[in-house]
Amino acid sequence: MKIAVIGLGYIGLPTAIMFANHEQQVVGIDLKENVVNMLNTGRIHIEEPGLQAELHRALQAGNFQAQLDVEAADVFIIAVPTPNRPDIYLSCDLTHVKDAVRKTIPFLKPGNVLILESTIAPRTTEDVVKPMLEEAGFIVGEDIFLVHCPERVLPGKIIHELVYNNRIIGGLTPNCVEAGKKVYGVFVQGELIETTAGAAELSKLMENTYRDVNIALANELAKIGDTLGINALEVIEMANKHPRVNLHAPGPGVGGHCLAVDPYFIVAATPENTPLIQQARAINNSMPHFILEKVKDFMTTIDGKKITVCGVTYKGNVDDIRESPAIEIIHLLEQEAALEVTVFDPHVKASWIEPVLEEAVANADLLLILTDHSEFKTWTATQLAGMKQKNILDTKNVIPELEKVAIYNMGNLHEMHRGNKKLVSTTE
C-alpha cells in the first residue's frame, strides 16, 4: 500500500515510520518546511526513544519521504492537532482536520481509505467529515472507506505501544471497519477492536477524562491534607493497598495534548450532562495557583528570593511542553516582583532555560520540581551545594533524600509553614 500521513508530530511521525518499516511506501506531509527538511536529512524534530533509529531504517530502505503537499495514495491518515477553541466550553477546533480533508479530497479515488487519528469531538467523523466527502461526490462505505482510529500510546514508549496496544477501529459502516483493520493489521499485534466511529471518538475522550477526573481527586486530597495537617501521599499509599482502590498521584496540574484538552470536547458536546468532568477540570486547573501560593508563603517564611524551577515539560523524559502546568507556574512566579526565577530542564533547549544544573541552582533558596525527569532522581547533595538555602518543593515526589536538604512534597505541604527549621524528607 501507499500511505500518506498528514501531520508529522508526536503521533503522525511515529505512525508513518512504523508503516514504512513494515514494507509500506509512505509519504509524510507537514506544513512546516523545516520539519520536512530535517526528516529527509535523517533528523527527527521531537524527542522519542528509538524513533531516530527507526527513521534511519525507513530512509535507508527508501520507504519514507517527507514533503509539504498531499499526493495520491491508497490510504490517507490524518494526524493533525485539534486544540481547544476559545469559547465558553473550550470545544474542539477542527480547523486543521477540515483543512487536511479538503487537501486530500482532490486525490481520493474509489477504494481509498481515509483515517482520522486526530482526537476529535463525538460525532465529528459522521457529522463533519462524511458530509465533506459526500459533497465531493463519494459514497462513504462504497467509494471511500472512512474510519476513526484514535492513538492510544504513551510518550516515551510510542514505538512499542504502536505495535502491542489494542487499537480501536471505528468505521462508519462495516465495510469501513474492515478496511481500517486491513490497514492497521500491517503491524498492530494488539487486538483490533471493531466499533462505530462515534463510539471510537467517545472512547478515546473518556480514556483521558477518566485519568483527569482521578488526578483531580488526588489533587483535592492534597489540598485536604494540607489544611488538616495529614500526609496525603501516605493516605494514598495506604488506600491503594485496598484491592479495589487505585488513587492517582497529585501534582502541580495536568498537561499535554490529551488530559488537559480532551475532556472539554465531551463537555462542549453535552454541557448539561458533564458537571463532574467540568469540576475535575476546574480542580486541576487550580493547581498552578495553589502551588504559587504555597511557594510565596514559604519564601516569605524563609526570607528567600531565588527560585529554581526544575522541569518544564508536562511529563518526565520528553521534550513536550504542550499545556504544561509548569509553564503557567513559571509565568505566575515571574509576575512576583519579590522573586527571582531561573529555569532548568535537561530535555528542553531554549534561551530562557539554563542548561547547566550547577549554574541554575547557584544561590537558590528553593528548588521547585515540576516534572519527573529521571535525571532528577539521581541528584546528589554535591550537585546542589551552590544553593543559598537548601530547600526543595518536589511536586512529583521523585527527589531522593539528601543530607541537610529540606524536602517537601504534595504529601507534607503542611510542614512548609515551618520553613527550614525542620528538615523533612520525601519518606516522612
TrEMBL record:
Superkingdom as given in the UniProt entry: Bacteria
Leader sequence residues: none
Family statement: Belongs to the UDP-glucose/GDP-mannose dehydrogenase family.
Organism annotation: Listeria booriae
Classification via InterPro entries: 6-PGluconate_DH-like_C_sf, NAD(P)-bd_dom_sf, UDP-Glc/GDP-Man, UDP-Glc/GDP-Man_DH_C, UDP-Glc/GDP-Man_DH_C_sf, UDP-Glc/GDP-Man_DH_dimer, UDP-Glc/GDP-Man_DH_N, UDP_ManNAc/GlcNAc_DH
Biological process per Gene Ontology, one example term: polysaccharide biosynthetic process
Alphabetized Pfam families for the sequence: UDPG_MGDP_dh, UDPG_MGDP_dh_C, UDPG_MGDP_dh_N
Entries under PANTHER family matching the protein: UDP-N-ACETYL-D-MANNOSAMINE DEHYDROGENASE
Coiled-coil residue windows: none
Keywords: NAD, Oxidoreductase
GO MF assignments: NAD binding; oxidoreductase activity, acting on the CH-CH group of donors, NAD or NADP as acceptor; oxidoreductase activity, acting on the CH-OH group of donors, NAD or NADP as acceptor
Domain UDP-glucose/GDP-mannose dehydrogenase C-terminal: 308-401
Protein name according to UniProt: UDP-N-acetyl-D-mannosamine dehydrogenase
